[in-house]
Amino acid sequence: MENSSTAENLDDNPLSAEPGLKGADYVVRVLASRGINTVFGYPGGAIMPLYDALYNSPVEHVLCRHEQGAGMAAIGFARASGKTGVCIATSGPGATNLVTALAEAMLDSVPLVALTGQVPTTALGTDAFQEVDMLGMSLSVTKHSFLVSNVEELPEILEQAFQLANSGRPGPVLVDLPKDVLLASCASDPSSNAVADTQPVALPWNLCEQARELISQASRPVLYAGGGVGMANAVEALRFFQQKTGMPSVLTLKGLGAIAPDTTGYLGMLGMHGTRAANLAVQQCDLLVCVGARFDDRVTGRLEGFAPDARVIHLDIDPSEFGKRRQPDVALSGDLNILLPALAVKAPCEEWLKNCEAMRYEFRWRYDAPGETIYAPALLNTLSQQLPDSTVVTCDVGQHQMWVAQHMSFTRPENHLSSGGLGTMGFGLPAAIGAALSRQKQPRQDDLVICVSGDGSIMMNIQELSTARRLNLPVKVVLLDNERLGMVRQWQSLFFEGRHSETVLSDNPDFPALAQAFGIPAQTILHRHEVDDAIQTMLNTDGPYLLHVAIDAEENVWPLVPPGADNHNMLEDI
Amino acid sequence: MIKLDVMAINRQAVIERILRVVRHRGFHVCGLNMPTNTGSADVQVELTLERAGYACKTPVDQLVAQLIKLVDVVQVEQRS
Ligand SMILES: Cc1ncc(C[n+]2csc(CCOP(=O)(O)OP(=O)(O)O)c2C)c(N)n1
């Protein structure tokens, strides 16, 4: 939630409106009045007035080294803190470089406000230097977008932008700011009206009663929860519901952390790389209670074969998810903090819970792989056990991402930042920077941030090592180097007859030397016996660090539900 | 043929936004009618749609649910 306390103190605020203030100053005053003290961006021609207004302002601007880095850092900031992420770019190439971050925020429902420079209104539509129709480009990757065509519109548009980014199902909002609008005089004060919370809506008792009835009759129920739980600040409500109903639980990639890992009947992640226990339980269940999740194709496998015997209760803030992939028997849209307690009735499922616990034990992870090469799942598990609970772990996309989800433990969803919907390589490092900034406390007491990356992904936003160094952030990169685009290589091995087309990265740079060139200490490890010491060195080093870990090029992620298969037909190491 | 009446607030790019959602969610515009409205706060759009081949099973309700999520769309009704 945003800190609105500064809004009430506007009179004491040195940024309170004075004659001579411009549109750009107004934008900065809005940020300050909303308690947004950190923004991420990269300057350029059209946005220069805003950078001028940021100069000496109380809003800290973090200069990233690529606009995509700035966008992803703002997302990391938002996801790790629950606040709004703000990123800034200039017109044309600066703005187009933000597009992937907008799509990322769209698919993972992250409250993000992007402020982009634009050519002056007088030059709009003339193919002016660095003019891109950013409003047009934003339509498919934002929840909403605005082109401010007159400074008088600025107050209302900014108000709406922040409100929309955070309301209902959160998402990205873009505000395109022509240079003359930023330079036009604008002496009004940001309104100090706190955004009205959505009015509590009366619960649809009928539907609640139907849901309670389904739960109280289910002998094999499963709770299936996703990223919506964390976004709604409903972790406690979900845990209360789970305890009261007594049902086993599974989580999506984005839900990890919403149920504490040691909870009885918690079976881990479901879906393509989920645990065998989670997938088998869902396939066998008679009732699936889907909370803040959306039956994504990575979760369901073959949709028609997913949880074939289950009745479905679906709870989500966004009613367009109901029936989009799976028809629910009861669907309830609203605040999970209100819905979940209203449905918390005991399910008659003690036997089933025991069965699920037995499955969890039977299919527990094993870390006894033979040999001296470093086994990535074991390394991640060892690392996870040594981290304080408040640590944030970000990751990139590929095999290492799935190993993080499988082998590291999370007690809060905001501590596991993974690019879920878009699956964006290059997310991990800038997201870690944003997360670290959002968790700054006392010097040396900041929350630690681990970024687990792959040798392919890290190169997509490697320039952000510079940002981590500049700010001396406690971001520790664990780079799992298989000299491959591992996840694609795995699919080529399994489903394309081993034709490894363009997935060999044996000419990677010397990663420790590269880190050191950015002023970041680094170390390579090649053998299993080096792991413990290397982890200690990394954790004991102040500021950023890169641990370069050589792993087997042929290692695969197991289990795997192959494309088009039902979730109980998982492939295992063979 | 599917007929939808869309009522929306007459703001920046509202028609583009509606048409984009229609296309992306698997429908094809075969008719579009929008009365001239200068200076009015609302726009009324009548859409006549077909399903694109890949969306042959998508219920119209799904399209309506996506359209209503657009910030400026106020109401969507299906006409028989
Ligand atoms: C920006 C982007 N481009 C391409 C892909 C497709 N892709 C998914 S995983 C992957 C390989 C990732 O390799 P690496 O980062 O080394 O991780 P590994 O799988 O080896 O752990 C690729 C190319 C993607 N997800 N994102």
Automatic annotation (TrEMBL), chain A:
Domain (Thiamine pyrophosphate enzyme central) ranges: 209-343
Molecular-function annotations in GO: acetolactate synthase activity; flavin adenine dinucleotide binding; magnesium ion binding; thiamine pyrophosphate binding
GO BP term (any one): L-valine biosynthetic process
Residue ranges constituting the Thiamine pyrophosphate enzyme N-terminal TPP-binding domain according to the UniProt record: 22-135
CDD domains: TPP_AHAS, TPP_PYR_POX_like
InterPro entries: Acetolactate_synth_lsu, AHAS_TPP, DHS-like_NAD/FAD-binding_dom, THDP-binding, Thiamin_PyroP_enz_cen_dom, Thiamin_PyroP_enz_TPP-bd_dom, TPP_enz, TPP_enzyme_TPP-bd
Needed co-factor(s): Mg(2+); thiamine diphosphate
Family: Belongs to the TPP enzyme family.
Record-given protein name: Acetolactate synthase
Automatic annotation (TrEMBL), chain B:
Entry keyword set: Transferase
Molecular function per GO: acetolactate synthase activity
Entry annotated with the keyword Transferase: yes
SUPFAM superfamilies the UniProt entry points to: ACT-like (SSF55021)
InterPro entries assigned: ACT-like_dom_sf
Name of the protein this chain belongs to: Acetolactate synthase isozyme 2 small subunit
Gene: ilvM
Domain of life: Bacteria
Enzyme Commission number(s) from the entry: 2.2.1.6
